[in-house]
Every structure is written in C-alpha cells, then in structure tokens.
Amino acid sequence: MEQPAADLHVHTTVSDGTLRLEELPAAATAADIELVAVTDHDRIHPGLDAPVSDHDGITIVRGIELRVETDRQRLDLLGYGVEPTDALVAECDRLQQDRIDRAREIIDCVEPRLGVSLDISPAPGIGRPHIAGAIAESDAVYGYQEAFDELIGNDCPCYVAREITPCDRGVDLLTEACPVVAVAHPLRYDDPAAALDHAAGLDAVERYYPYDRAVDHTVVDDAIETHDLLATGGSDAHDRTLGRAGPPAAIVSRFRHQLEKR
Q1: 127: part of which helix (H) or strand (E)?
Q2: Angle of helix 86-114 relative to helix 167-177, nearest 10 degrees?
Q3: What percent of the residues of the chain are helix, what percent strand, and what percent coil, each to the nearest 5?
Q4: Is-contact 35 61, C-beta < 8 A?
Q5: CA-to-CA distance for 36 and 7, rounded, in angstroms?
Q6: What is the pLDDT of residues 78-104, one digit of tens each?
Q7: Can you give the C-alpha Rg of the chain in angstroms?
Q8: CB of 3 within 8 A of CB of 214?
Q9: CA–CA separation, 13 vs 16, rounded Å?
Q10: CA distance 100 to 130
Q11: 8 DSSP 8-state letter
C-alpha cells in the first residue's frame, strides 16, 4: 500500500477530537502528510478563514462531517473546501443547539442514576464521547467504554436520540457549499450498498479508511469505477495521530484540482 499523502478526515477540539488547530501542522509533519482536511462533526472550524489555507507548510482544507438520515440508515457525509452558506450555517447552529439540549438530557439521566455530579458543561461541539469521559472521571464505577455499553449507547437507559438532518437536505446543503462531497466510511454501515447508492450522486467516496476489521473493498471500488467517483480517505482521527489511512499522492493531486474548480 502506498504511503498516504493526505489525511482527509480529521477531528479537532472543536468537536470530539483532541488536537487543537495549531497542533495540526506538527502532527501532519510527524505522519509525513502534506495535506489535512479538518472535518469536525456538524461544525465548520472557526479558526479556518478560507476553504484552503497554509499553516506552517501544511495545507489545511476546511471541511465538515454531517450526519444525515436516510430511509434505511444514518450516513456520514464529508464536505471539503467549505464556503459557508447562510443555509449551512443555520443548520449547523440548529444541530449544535440540538447537541447541547441532548447532552443536558443525558446528563440529567446519568447523574441521579449513578449518584454523581459530572464535571461537564454542555457547549457547542459536545457529543457522547465527552459525556462518557466525564462519567469515567467521576466517582462512578463505569469506565469510558462501559459508559457507552451500559448507559449512553444506543438503546441504553440514558440514550437520547439526536434530531439530525434528512439526507436530501444534507446533500443539498453540502453540494451548495463544497466543491467535493463524499460518503464517509461506506463499509461501516449496516447496508454498504445502500450507502454507495447515495454516493452515486456525489463527488467522492471514502475509499481509504482504517476499519477495525478485515474488509472487502470490491463493492466500493466498483462504485468508484461505475460512477466516476474520487477515492478520498482519511484516518477519522479523534486522537493526535494522523496518517493511519488516506489517499496516495496521485489522488491527492486530483482532489486538489477538484477543490479549485469552484
């Protein structure tokens, strides 16, 4: 496998990552990566003032990861080279308020159930990982993963659903704002074929991804060829290590060209 030349799926402290924006160039250099896309959940990083910018010799693409609802499953879409529109900004604001309201509901369920007070204040970007971390750091007997498995994960007693964006609406919002829109990690979904059906109307699919199991990429490669999609990819980094997956140099060149089209 070729060395990744870019990492097009990275989260920062603006959502549920641990890297600050100013730390990204050093992390990219350590991974021998020349280009990074910041794709925080439902947020456009406020520290990035252009769709593509240079930071200490590393190219950083302003992106977003948006979860959408289809008639079969929830999908994650990645938008690259974001030029914020009023409609996208309004939807991000709505989603962030929904995250805050949801977090308060979860915390109000967890605290009396465990008899603890969690050291966490809901703010934009908050997600269940933040709450699980607060549970693990409290006087409760639950660790981080146990908090997900037994308290706040899907179908658990303190789970609260989010009001996420319908798929057609999400596609329209991102297509208007971004020159490249991709379906993220298609082989993570219960129905990869259905996810790839949605990719047919977009620009790209996340081909390079560090799945936690052996996967057969045939269905993804077939979709890329059939629909002439760009094969993007990234590590989905929530920690400080970049470059676990990503496209090789030849694809990065095509990606850069696509960003410049708008």
Answers
A1: none
A2: 130
A3: 40, 20, 40
A4: yes
A5: 5
A6: 999 999 999 999 999 999 999 999 999
A7: 18
A8: no
A9: 6
A10: 12
A11: E
